[in-house]
Amino acid sequence: DADVTQTPRNRITKTGKRIMLECSQTKGHDRMYWYRQDPGLGLRLIYYSFDVKDINKGEISDGYSVSRQAQAKFSLSLESAIPNQTALYFCATSRGTGGRVVAGELFFGEGSRLTVL
Amino acid sequence: AQSVTQLDSHVSVSEGTPVLLRCNYSSSYSPSLFWYVQHPNKGLQLLLKYTSAATLVKGINGFEAEFKKSETSFHLTKPSAHMSDAAEYFCVVSARGDYKLSFGAGTTVTVRA
Fold first, then answer.
1. For B44, which of A12, A97, B36, B55 could close a Cys bridge (C-beta 3.0–4.6 Å)?
2. Is B101 within 8 Å of A45 when comparing Cβ atoms?
3. Alpha helix locations (H) across A26-67?
4. Could you tell me the pLDDT band of residue A105, with boundaries at 50, 70 and 90?
5. Reported confidence tier of residue B32, pLDDT bands at 50, 70, 90
6. Contact A42/B90, CB-based, under 8 Å?
7. Range B55-71 average pLDDT
8. DSSP state of A34
9. Is A42 in Cβ contact with B105 (below 8 Å)?
């Protein structure tokens, strides 16, 4: 089984609909992230969470919200989906030791492809 | 501020020939640099990382990269391409110890039989 699991893997929805993408992990990591991948733009950070009570906006958080339900679960919501949110979304986790992040060592899920019509 | 530029959006090589993927970085602080690989319909996987030790870094599957501060480069190489190397490759930079990663736009590698 995958260490970082995303559901759904594919979703087609209509403009204005609410969508939730879910992520669960068995790696025991405290830190979780949501990224968006668009062709030619690489990955961009939407939100990140260093523990259940710590949630922070990334570089492109407008139109998105998140919930950290438990150490192992981190969900991303689009309250009212729009076509330019069509993208491939990745959840990732990382270790953190005390105050120091083991920077760059992210562990990714297989992605959730979202299409907004 | 930090950023990376991957100089080639697409690289095509024949099986058994060398692979070179070019990456230049910009960072206000001492950088950590990484290469990630993404195979079709899969998540990203860490290939290798530079975090201030040896400037020549060896990774998985025969890949290596050299950190050149004077050229602000971190190019990825492999002596002999295999069909399984066909994937998208991302160069990534962060300020050392920082969680904030800046991804390049990616380089798609095609391997011809």
1. B36
2. yes
3. none
4. confident
5. confident
6. yes
7. 94
8. E
9. yes
Q: How far is CA A77 from CA A22, A56, A113, B98, in A?
A: 9, 14, 14, 26
Q: Is B40 on the interface with A (CB under 8 A)?
A: no
> Is B51's Cβ below 8 Å from some Cβ in A?
yes
**Half-sphere exposure (Cβ direction) of A100: Cα atoms closer than 13 Å:** 4
Q: What is the pLDDT of residue B112?
A: 96
d(CA B16, CA B13): 8
Residue in chain B nearest A41 by alpha carbon: B105
Evaluate if residue B100 carries a pLDDT over 90: no
Compute CA distances B101 → A30, A44, B68, whole Å: 17, 9, 19
Across B54-72, average pLDDT: 93
Residue by residue, DSSP assigns A59-109 as TT-TT-EEEEEETTEEEEEESS--GGG-EEEEEEEE-EETTEE-TT--EE-
